[in-house]
């Protein structure tokens, strides 16, 4: 009996609250209608009325920042784009271009002026780490690496007719060498089928195993790339806890020490909350350690679960960082809102640098 009384009281309370809400809504609607009749000849007044913030206690959820005009891109397409995409599907290959939702995929795969660049992701499409900026799938135990992947990758590259290829990989902390031998074999197979193709390897940090770095550095590649991603001060809030700036710097130093002919390259995302002094100090440290190439691009939040964008850096600020990096002596700098680690790599000055060395 008491249970029924409680239930009846709850229903009565709900009905009263609902009635108050309906009366408030009706009153508000009538107020708006009156206001519209009074100010129908004053559009600014009407606009201001609708722009009023919600009353206290009725705040809206924080929305993701709107993209500024310079970050909006068209839908990718073109003959070369579809050729590369179809080839990837047939050979069951993955690309970081697709997995990381890169905004430049149409430009790179489309190959303006007769040059196309693709970034193939080997060792599968599942990473053992979970960086807060990256949308690649994660797992502690990814599927085993495909032993035919190095050969299949080389065949695909040879068929596409690209003249610059970037080989990258997920982190594979589950493998004894972090996948270094697999990456090195992929490079060798590409060079075996077409020695004229320029090969860049964008590597993980191999959990600090410098022997793994040496294996890749001696594989016959042209550019050894490893991304520090952000300034030292933001490493812990941006990257997986197993990654850090000092370890990444050691990877780049070891690659250069192992093969002095290699170009070493790194990339940095801006808009994560870094300060100007932090960026400047980071560039100086990289250059002091003989890093040859640096790129700057805008961090883009891939999903609502990832780290939010703190700032959309303007094209003018990117130009400023390019000027400062060039003054420090980097051999090549690519800096812009839509620049990515391997953005149109074959169409930049880096290609000419490599050809002049040969």
Write a concise keyword list for the protein shown above.
358 residues, alpha/beta, eight-stranded mixed sheet, two-stranded parallel sheet
SSE blueprint and pairings:
Blueprint: H1 2-38, H2 43-50, H3 79-91, E1 94-95, H4 96-99, H5 105-110, E2 117-122, E3 126-127, E4 137-138, H6 149-160, E5 164-169, H7 180-193, E6 198-202, H8 210-217, E7 223-225, H9 235-238, H10 245-258, E8 263-270, H11 276-288, E9 293-298, H12 315-328, E10 332-335, H13 349-357
Parallel strand pairs: 2-5, 3-4, 5-6, 6-7, 7-8, 8-9, 9-10
Antiparallel strand pairs: 1-2
Helix pairs in contact: 3-6, 6-7, 7-8, 8-10, 11-12
Summarize the structure.
The chain has 358 residues and is an alpha/beta fold. The chain has helices spanning 2-38, 43-50, 79-91, 96-99, 105-110, 149-160, 180-193, 210-217, 235-238, 245-258, 276-288, 315-328, 349-357, and strands at 94-95, 117-122, 126-127, 137-138, 164-169, 198-202, 223-225, 263-270, 293-298, 332-335. It is built from 13 helices and ten strands.
């Amino acid at each position: 009996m008491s249970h029924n009384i409680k239930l009846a009281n709850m229903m009565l309370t709900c009905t009263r609250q609902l009635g108050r809400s309906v009366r408030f809504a009706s009153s508000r609607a009538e107020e708006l209608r009156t206001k519209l009749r009074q100010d129908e000849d004053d559009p600014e007044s009407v606009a201001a009325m609708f722009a009023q913030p919600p009353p206290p206690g009725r705040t809206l959820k924080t929305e993701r920042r709107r993209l500024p005009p310079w970050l909006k891109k068209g839908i990718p397409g073109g003959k070369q784009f579809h050729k590369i995409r179809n080839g990837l599907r047939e050979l069951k290959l993955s690309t970081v271009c697709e997995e990381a939702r890169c905004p430049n995929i149409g430009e790179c795969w489309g190959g303006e002026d007769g040059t196309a660049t693709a970034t193939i992701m080997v060792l599968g499409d599942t990473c053992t780490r979970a960086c807060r900026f990256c949308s690649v799938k994660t797992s502690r135990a990814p599927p085993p690496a495909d032993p035919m992947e190095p050969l299949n990758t080389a065949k695909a590259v040879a068929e596409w007719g690209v003249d610059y290829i970037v080989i990258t990989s997920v982190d594979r902390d589950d493998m004894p060498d972090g996948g270094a031998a697999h990456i090195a074999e992929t490079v060798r197979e590409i060079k075996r089928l077409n020695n004229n193709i320029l090969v860049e390897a964008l590597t993980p940090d191999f959990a600090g195993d410098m022997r793994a770095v040496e294996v890749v550095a001696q594989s016959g590649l042209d550019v050894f790339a490893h991304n520090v991603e952000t300034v030292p001060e933001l490493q812990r809030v941006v990257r997986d806890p197993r990654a850090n700036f000092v370890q990444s710097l050691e990877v780049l130093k070891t690659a250069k020490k192992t093969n002095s002919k290699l170009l070493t390259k790194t990339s940095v995302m801006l808009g994560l909350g870094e300060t100007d002094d932090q960026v400047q100090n980071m560039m100086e440290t990289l250059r002091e350690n003989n890093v040859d190439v640096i790129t700057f691009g805008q961090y883009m939040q891939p999903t609502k679960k990832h780290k939010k964008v703190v700032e959309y850096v303007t094209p003018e600020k990117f130009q400023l960082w390019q000027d400062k990096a060039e003054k420090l002596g980097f051999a090549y700098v690519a800096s812009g809102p839509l620049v990515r680690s391997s953005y149109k790599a074959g169409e930049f000055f880096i290609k000419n640098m490599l050809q002049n060395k040969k």
